[in-house]
């Protein structure tokens, strides 16, 4: 007995191959809508978008419109889809689902960008706040009071006085006649008693013809 | 093969494929063309022209015809289709009811 096996038709084989290679499809040209009905439901959003854009001069919506409606519901929820349909009815307008999908996607993207910007701003603010509270290195070295011990112009020692006003007051006091008189008396007293003098006594070092020695011998000769 | 057992399929470019009549009859369209009494010039000459089908596609179709006969007789193998031919081949196959 000769069993007649059902041979797969070439059309079927082609449809199967097309479904397997749906990611490579672009311009579907003049392909029958009936055939596309079998193939296009196997596309992802990106694949379907690519095919629609590549197939110029031909309206695929008899096949694709219901596919886009499904994509819309899946991506944005059936509630949103129903809302959109209601609005279209109210306004007596009709839009292709592919356009509705694209528009909604744009809206969602814009909202997302806005909130990302907000977060970025908050991070920036926090960063700036943290920076301002940090200990920062200075390039200038504050003046060291101890070092300027000998540097005072008029020669008065006011290094132990911190305030400028006090410094001024102290200098004026030191300049006054009374204090100067007292300072002079102190100096003379020191010179009369050479043993108390901070200078070394030259009489301890005998040396002839030394100009310095003879000079320093003089005050020691002044004895009362 | 005797001439009576063959048909000539001619592509858009004028390429002639001489194949077994049984193979050609796998296509319902060709079968109708060849068996309809007198209404087609094809029955007289035993040749069919396909000005819309390119040579590459027509060649693939002939290969399918032979594969189909083989499959029906028990030898089930895979019929490979190059992805770049898929859409065009599909449309031609649709037209030829095969």
TrEMBL record, chain A:
Any one GO biological process: transcription elongation by RNA polymerase II
Top-level taxon of the source organism: Eukaryota
Location of the region described as Disordered in the Swiss-Prot/TrEMBL record: 190-224
Entry-linked InterPro entries: RNA_pol_II_trans_fac_SIII_A
Gene3D superfamilies referenced in this protein's UniProt entry, alphabetically: 6.10.250.3180
Cellular component GO terms, alphabetical: elongin complex
Pfam families named among the record's database cross-references: Elongin_A
PANTHER family attached to this UniProt entry: OS08G0169600 PROTEIN (PTHR47543), RNA POLYMERASE II TRANSCRIPTION FACTOR SIII SUBUNIT A (PTHR47543:SF2)
Name of this chain's protein: Elongin-A
Annotated source species: Trapa incisa
From TrEMBL, chain B:
Transmembrane stretches, start-end: none
Pathway connected to this protein: Protein modification; protein ubiquitination
The family this protein is said to belong to: Belongs to the SKP1 family.
Keywords of the record: Nucleus
Main location group: nucleus
One GO cellular component term: nucleus
Domain of life according to the entry: Eukaryota
Name assigned to this protein: Elongin-C
GO biological process: jasmonic acid mediated signaling pathway; ubiquitin-dependent protein catabolic process
Gene source species: Trapa incisa
Protein localization: Nucleus
């Amino acid at each position: 007995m000769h069993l007649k096996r059902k041979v797969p038709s070439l059309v079927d084989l082609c449809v199967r191959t097309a479904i397997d290679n749906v990611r490579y499809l672009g311009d579907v040209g003049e392909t029958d809508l009936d055939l596309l009905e079998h193939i296009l439901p196997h596309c992802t959003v990106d694949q379907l978008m690519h095919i629609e854009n590549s197939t110029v001069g031909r309206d695929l919506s008899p096949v694709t419109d219901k596919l886009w409606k499904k994509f819309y519901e899946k991506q944005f929820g059936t509630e949103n889809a129903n809302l959109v349909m209601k609005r279209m009815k109210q306004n007596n307008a009709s839009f292709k689902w592919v356009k509705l999908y694209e528009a909604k996607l744009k809206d969602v993207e814009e909202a997302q960008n806005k909130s990302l910007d907000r977060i970025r701003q908050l991070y920036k603010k926090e960063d700036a706040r943290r920076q301002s509270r940090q200990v920062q290195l200075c390039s200038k070295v504050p003046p060291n009071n101890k070092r300027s011990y000998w540097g005072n112009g008029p020669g008065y020692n006011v290094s132990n006085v911190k305030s400028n006003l006090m410094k001024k007051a102290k200098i004026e006091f030191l300049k006054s006649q009374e204090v100067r008189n007292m300072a002079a008396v102190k100096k003379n007293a020191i010179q009369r008693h050479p043993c108390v003098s901070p200078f070394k006594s030259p009489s301890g070092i005998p040396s002839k013809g030394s100009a310095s020695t003879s000079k320093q011998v003089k005050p020691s000769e002044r004895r009362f | 093969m005797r001439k009576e057992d063959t048909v000539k399929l001619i592509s858009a470019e004028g390429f002639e494929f001489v194949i077994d009549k049984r193979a050609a009859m796998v296509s319902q369209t060709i079968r109708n063309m060849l068996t309809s009494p007198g209404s087609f010039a094809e029955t007289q000459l035993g040749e069919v022209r396909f000005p819309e089908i390119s040579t590459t596609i027509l060649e693939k179709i002939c290969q399918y015809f032979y594969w189909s006969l083989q499959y029906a007789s028990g030898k089930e193998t895979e019929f490979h289709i190059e992805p770049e031919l898929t859409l065009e081949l599909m449309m031609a196959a649709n037209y030829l009811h095969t």
